[in-house]
Design brief:
The complex is a heterodimer of chains A (95) and B (282). By secondary structure, chain A is mainly β. Helices cover 0% and strands 58% of the residues of chain A. Chain B is 28% helix and 12% strand. Chain B has a five-stranded parallel sheet with strand order 1-5-4-2-3. Chain B has a four-stranded parallel sheet with strand order 7-6-8-9, with helices on one face. The chains are: A mainly beta (95), B alpha/beta (282).
Chain lengths: 95, 282
């Protein structure tokens, strides 16, 4: 199951989607807390990854940072989202 | 106020799971979290079903609160440890709610569910039932709850702290995206309110920042120690988190949570509203 949420005011902007996966090496990481930070680094939302280490959010075009915390370690990724699908992979590594 | 009297660490919690007189209570916005795994022995509270009047927009009354806690097996002599998801937002809300009804011995689990999970500590699915008690609550302590008229009167005279995200403050968004969309009629913020998003009071693992960091945060944002303070967000849960930081951790005496928050204020007829990233004029 892929978790989904929508970022936006009023009608969801479903044209800008960010399917995400969190991995440690080749393994998906379920139960990771993934925080969405805006271009200024401010907290915007947080979700927990599904059993397959995935989730998806719908956001506005722009620059976002994804910060993942998990039992397997932490990691982050940045994305310049455009309209359409913006695949993002976050790799976590033990500190 | 000492931090130890209002917060417990995950280590302390783990060592006291079986301590008689210690009751763990999970409070969530999404109560399926509890059903999929909770701290051993913890009972659950649903912030909406259990803590809100089903008809009017208000809290359950004293007798209903007493019946709720009695039914969950929480006694007056127990030490209540609250925790939950969403970085403890709803647990902090319940904490404030317990205080509103005169509870003295209640604490938050620092880091809540998130830290507990990230630490790979034990979660179980076992149903929990505790023998019923006969809980006695106090009358509502109005010194920690703000109503709309005093919020309007506070514009330009008291500290107003808006703890929502910058986009909600500025009027670009009405609600955080990942939560149910209880919404006001108008976007923006209460004029003269400073913006200090709740998240700045927490570390990324969900624990609260140190007292020194918190003091620096609010003083840099322009909070005037000499004035009373009212914190608000959208429905009063994130502002409970900030109320906890200001009133319980920093020991500021006169801090209220405005549980009507933006969903009430932003729907009032005739009140001033500010747009944009600055507080605006009274």
């Amino acid at each position: 199951m892929t978790q989904e949420y929508t970022l936006g005011c009023g009608a969801p902007d479903q044209d800008t989607a960010l399917p995400l996966s969190v991995r440690s090496g080749d393994e998906p990481v379920p139960g990771a807390y993934v925080r969405l930070l805006d271009a200024t680094g401010e907290f915007t939302a947080e979700v927990v990854t599904s059993a397959g280490g995935q989730f998806r959010f719908f956001a506005a075009p722009g620059n976002w940072t994804l910060r993942a915390l998990s039992r397997a370690g932490n990691g982050d990724a940045t994305v310049s989202a455009e309209r359409g699908l913006n695949q993002v992979a976050v790799t976590v590594t033990a500190a | 106020m000492s931090r130890d009297s209002v917060l417990v660490s995950a280590d302390w919690a783990e060592k006291n799971l079986d301590t008689p007189g210690v009751v763990f209570v999970e409070v969530d916005e999404d109560t399926s979290a509890y059903d999929n795994g909770h701290i051993p022995g913890a009972v659950k509270l649903d912030w909406k079903k259990d803590l809100q009047d089903p008809v009017r927009r208000d809290f359950v009354n004293k007798e209903q609160f007493e019946a709720l806690l009695s039914g969950r097996g929480i006694g007056n002599d127990d030490t209540v440890i609250l925790y939950g998801g969403n970085n403890n937002w709803f647990a902090a809300y319940a904490y404030w709610y317990f205080k509103l009804y005169g509870r003295r011995d209640v604490k938050l689990l620092d880091g809540g569910r998130k830290k507990w999970e990230l630490d790979a500590r034990t979660l179980v699915k076992d149903p929990v039932s505790r023998p019923a008690t006969s809980y006695t609550a106090g009358e509502q302590d109005r010194s920690i709850r703000a109503y709309r008229d005093e919020v309007v009167a506070a514009i330009g005279t008291q500290n107003l702290v808006d703890v929502r995200s910058p986009d909600e403050y500025a009027g670009r968004l009405l609600a955080p995206a990942h939560l149910p969309q209880e919404q006001a009629q108008r976007a923006g913020h209460i004029p003269t309110a400073i913006s200090v998003p709740w998240s700045k009071a927490a570390n990324e693992d969900g624990t609260f920042k140190s007292d020194d960091e918190l003091r620096e945060l609010y003083s840099a944002a322009g909070l005037d120690d000499g004035k009373d303070t009212i914190a608000y967000c959208r429905i009063g849960e994130r502002s409970s988190h900030t109320w906890f930081a200001l009133h319980e951790l920093l020991g500021q005496a006169r801090v209220k949570n405005y549980d009507g928050s933006w969903t009430e204020y932003g729907s009032l007829v005739g009140v001033p509203v500010a747009l944009g990233d600055t507080p605006g004029e009274a």
